[in-house]
Amino acid sequence: MPSLLFCGPKMAACGIVISIWGVIMLGMLGIFFSAKSAVLIEDVPFTEEDIRNDKFPPQAIYSLYNQVGINCFIAAAVYVAVGAVSLCQVRLNKRQEYMVT
Amino acid sequence: MGELFRSEEMTLAQLFLQSEAAYCCVSELGELGMVQFRDLNPDVNVFQRKFVNEVRRCEEMDRKLRFVEKEIKKASISQVDTGENPEVPFPRDMIDLEATFEKLENELKEINTNQEALKKNFLELTELKHILRRTQQFFDEMEDPNLLEESSSLMEGNEVGRGAPLRLGFVAGVISRERIPTFERMLWRVCRGNVFLRQADIEDPLEDPATGDQVHKSVFIIFFQGDQLKNRVKKICEGFRASLYPCPETPMERKEMLAGVNTRIDDLQMVLNQTEDHRQRVLQAASKTMRVWFIKVRKMKAIYHTLNLCNIDVTQKCLIAEVWCPVSDLDSIQFALRRGTERSGSTVPSILNRMLTKQTPPTFNKTNKFTSGFQNIVDAYGIGNYREINPAPYTIITFPFLFAVMFGDMGHGLLMTSLALYLVIRESRLLSQKSDNEIFNMVFAGRYIILLMGLFSIYTGLIYNDCFSKSLNMFGSGWSVRPMFINKGGNWTFGTLGENALLQLDPAVPGVFNGPYPLGIDPIWNIATNKLTFLNSFKMKMSIILGVTHMLFGVSLSLFNHLYFKKPLNIFLGFIPEIVFMSSLFGYLVLLVFYKWTAYDVFSSKDAPSLLIHFINMCLFNYNDPTNKPLYRGQMGIQILLVLIALACVPCMLIAKTLVLRRQHLWKAKLALKRAEAAAESLAQPPLEQTGASSSVSGLTQQGTQKFGGVRVGNGPTEDEAGIVDHDQLSQHSEDGDEHAEEEPFDFGDVAVHQAIHTIEYCLGCISNTASYLRLWALSLAHAQLSEVLWTMVMHLGLASSSGGGFFALTIIFAAFAVLTVCILLIMEGLSAFLHALRLHWVEFQNKFYCGQGFKFVPFSFESILEGRFDE
């Protein structure tokens, strides 16, 4: 069976840390974007037209907010996957350690 | 609690150790780790001391053990660290240990020489085998009929040579591969092209028996004609360190030889394997007890080294040691001595005898794993004087707090806290792993400091309302835009919004500002463009308030020092003027800050005067400035009074103290003169009281102890109380040199200059130190700005993409953001804030009360010796 191990113990630990952080932070950002937080307005990619050509004033901006929020959620999900892979790597590394010694 | 705020009370004590029990007693004391031995024979050469022979034997054992350890490491056998702490072996077991190590070392050495010889033999045989194989090829090629044909056709014209074929001689050998090109060239030049060299590489590397390296070698064979050439070729081969081997000429002989060599190689291989097995077994057995042996030998060496510091009594019956020890641990030391005596089987107990001394004892602060980090911060500046106020307990809170003021960010604080929590929770496991990484060890030693720094950063982040440079709106902002559109208010319309890029909310309009945010700074400021103007004013005032409070606290701590050391003069002419000076100038400034915060509201804030100008004018007595209105009525009178009080404090510190000191000195001198006269008068009468005192002491001596060669020795294990009586006659001898420091001559000029320097330093220091606390503002501003830049330059890129595939960029950019946050904001900024907090403590806080000129208590303890912290 080919080994699925492709990164060392340090790399795997780093991956776990960054993915925990990523899941929490991106998840929170996603929630805040979905809640249309005013502080995050600078990070919403709206243009002058979005405001001027809006039929029902805040709707265009709100949809952009939702869009960014969904991006955040997907990115959080990606980090869940990264975390799972890193966890597997840690397990594999541990098993290999046992086999050697 | 008392011991946390000051260093431990220490005492000098004499130990009378019976010579047969001395070894065991010192070993028990080493396990306890509570006494510091003094060198009682400093003028004696190291080689003239009593136990030098034993120390030397221990070092010899240590050397043998190190040799074995090196061999174990070479064989890559792992040593087990069981964490076991073996007892010190008795002196009589030393010979056993020595014999064991001697045997082990000899055995290993023998194995090594044998193995080397065998390997050398093996190498030669392998080389010979390769030569025989390769040369066979060369000879085969030579006898190849096709080749022969070709050469004969070439040599057709030369009929003479054909009849008698040339008798070619040859030499075969092995040479290392990198030497081949030069070797070939040399042969060609020296023999003028008259030799023929064939060579072939040996594929698998051979092992050099001397160094154990793997070397690549080549087989060569050289054909030549005549003896002269043969000599030359041999010389060249020698010069290139090629090993030559005899090679039979006929194929039959060669084949036979090859067979012989092969069988010999097989035999040798078997012998070699067995030797290697044996060696492994010996090393395996040694590696199991290696650590215990090392500890035993090191402990023994430490004991003999300590015994060398002791004084030997004239009767040779006992050793006398002088030790510093904490008073609170005298009982445990007594107990250790008794245990040592019991272990050695001696019937005469060892005695601990407290001595009175004028020497300054060492400073010993008891710490645990939580406080030791903070104590180290203080000790790095200077070890405190004996029984001086120890700043460490206050540092535990103020240090992380001042750090957090400069590092205020919830997100970063959370990251730091989780790192520290990991280190704290996995503490025991990480401790047992014993990492060699210096940086990791440093962080690990400061794990509790980092934990507190992280927690405080979360708190200040909450107050600054900053989380990765974004604000959290937890309670709802107090500001509202809607009232600005009402007629009575700002009269804003949609037109106003369209025309202006920036608009300012007016808090004077009712409904716009609905009171302050419940905790910290209102999140609305995060998106305001004039955020910095607001925050800078707030943070600057905050740093002044914190700084003045911190310094006033430091000055008040000096009061406790003066009280403890009973120096009333320092209180009245040092502490009081100092604190009055500081509070009348800077304390007043702090009051003004609070006053300005409370006295001005939305409507009157247009007329709010500048505090800085006011403060400068106060010191210049300038009250005619029309641009700066007074803060309150009667300001001029109060301020003039305060400045005058502050100025009056300066001569108090500068001159008054010196004059009073001089007066006291003269008084004392007069008194001494009078007393001398009185003593001269009463010389005729015998001093009655003194004889009474001495007779009572001698009575006590006779009661439970007996004179033993000039040394008092107890005769029962219950005599400890008698042992701790008091000063002993014998202790005098070592203290002759120490007592002259009792009375310093009073030098008026010296004291005056010292006091003047101190005063000037303090007064100027008040101003510069207050300014120095502005670094709290500067660094917190820098941190906030840097984290904002990181967000807009990195994270913003990932978030601000409207396409559906934006999550992919976001994922990658988040990773970059995380790495940069850790590297720049946590590590770099954290270090800088740490250093500034350190400086604020060392310079601004501690110089108000802390001398830091003591010396550290270094107890004799096996634990520290084994960890290598204490180098003899």
From TrEMBL, chain A:
Pfam families: V-ATPase_su_f
Gene Ontology MF: a single term: RNA endonuclease activity
Keyword Translocase belongs to the record: no
Keyword Protease set for record: no
Keywords: Membrane, Transmembrane, Transmembrane helix
Compartments in which it is found: Membrane
Coiled coil ranges: none
A single GO cellular-component term on record: membrane
Record field: transmembrane: 12-35, 68-90
Membrane topology annotation: Multi-pass membrane protein
Predominant subcellular localization, coarse grouping: membrane
Protein family according to the UniProt entry: Belongs to the RNase K family.
Protein name per the record: Ribonuclease, RNase K b
Organism from which the protein derives: Gadus morhua
From TrEMBL, chain B:
GO MF entries: ATPase binding; proton-transporting ATPase activity, rotational mechanism
GO CC entries: clathrin-coated vesicle membrane; melanosome; plasma membrane; synaptic vesicle membrane; vacuolar proton-transporting V-type ATPase, V0 domain
Region (Disordered): 684-713
Parts of the chain that traverse the membrane: 401-425, 445-464, 544-565, 571-595, 636-660, 776-799, 805-828
Topological relation to the membrane, as annotated: Multi-pass membrane protein
Family: Belongs to the V-ATPase 116 kDa subunit family.
UniProt-recorded name of the protein: V-type proton ATPase subunit a
Organism for this UniProt entry: Gadus morhua (Atlantic cod)
